[in-house]
């Protein structure tokens, strides 16, 4: 396992990048493995910005590779800043969720934690912000008390990649770095500090993005004749996959963007890319 881990960022390997240094990561992987191997319904719950959509999409792709039973939900930020009871009952429970993984958003209160427990929904929360209170569920946040992880400024897609790395270590997935194409875009949108691990992700991510085999990203690059991966080209990709600001269409556009970034069909990716370009022109 040590040799495999050292190859993850090779030749830029630094011991401090080990995802299991993140507090509660080992518990998260134990629960995820149990859900994956037993085909329990996993629901990914994220936010409708570029960083959040890249996080959702990349995790979907990894879990699909492992033949997990997954659904996803995009949070309606206009309704609440956190996940409320109605979200859990009307969305997560309705989908038959047995493991809820949230990316960039936490529960609103202890009431939602109790509801998850009553409904038999296991819970993993990934978040990156300053917090004071301890959580009674699996909570991964490099800024929480007791977390020894060195790099505190990862975006949500960057933090999601740490979860993906931990999954890769357990299942011996040697191609996990290919998802850096999406992670790079999320981190670039979030304007993270270009130091430490962020710097590695942004540098290595460009190599994977220019050679991407993601049908959605490749379709965007072909449509706009992107052949080099400089700052301007990355910003163009970000613009294409940024949900429209119009509250009526934002949620629908976010779902379409996730479909674009996770589709396994070239024709569908090209169709969505044309649609997104047209929708941008009519704003």
UniProtKB/TrEMBL annotation:
Pfam families for the chain: DHH
GO MF terms held by the record: exonuclease activity
Alphabetical list of InterPro entries matching this protein: DDH_dom, DHH_sf, SSDNA_exonuclease_RecJ
Domain DDH, chain residue ranges per copy: 41-186
Protein name per Swiss-Prot or TrEMBL: DHH family phosphoesterase
């Amino acid at each position: 396992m040590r040799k495999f881990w050292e190859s993850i960022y090779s030749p830029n390997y630094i011991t401090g990048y080990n995802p299991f240094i993140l507090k509660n990561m080992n518990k998260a992987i134990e629960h995820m493995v149990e859900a994956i191997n037993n085909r329990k319904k996993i629901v990914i719950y994220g936010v409708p910005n570029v960083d959040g959509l890249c996080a959702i999409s990349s995790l979907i792709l990894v879990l699909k590779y492992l033949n997990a039973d997954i659904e996803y939900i995009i949070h309606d930020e206009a309704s609440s800043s956190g996940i409320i009871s109605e979200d859990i009952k009307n969305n997560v429970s309705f989908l038959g969720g047995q493991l809820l993984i949230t990316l960039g958003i936490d529960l609103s209160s202890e009431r939602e934690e109790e509801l998850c427990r009553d409904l038999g929904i296991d819970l993993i929360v990934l978040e990156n912000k300053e917090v004071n209170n301890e959580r009674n569920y699996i909570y991964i946040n490099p800024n929480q008390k007791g977390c020894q992880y060195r790099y505190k400024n990862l975006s949500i897609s960057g933090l999601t990649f740490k979860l993906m790395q931990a999954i890769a270590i357990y299942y011996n997935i040697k191609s996990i770095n290919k998802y850096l194409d999406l992670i790079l875009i999320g981190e670039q949108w979030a304007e993270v500090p270009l130091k430490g691990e962020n710097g590695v992700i942004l540098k290595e991510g460009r190599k994977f993005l220019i050679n991407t085999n993601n049908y959605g990203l490749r379709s965007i690059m072909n449509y706009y004749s992107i052949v080099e991966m400089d700052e301007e080209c990355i910003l163009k990709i970000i613009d294409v996959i940024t949900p429209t600001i119009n509250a009526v269409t934002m949620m629908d556009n976010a779902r379409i963007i996730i479909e674009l970034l996770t589709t396994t069909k070239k024709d569908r990716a090209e169709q969505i890319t044309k649609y997104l370009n047209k929708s941008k022109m009519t704003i």
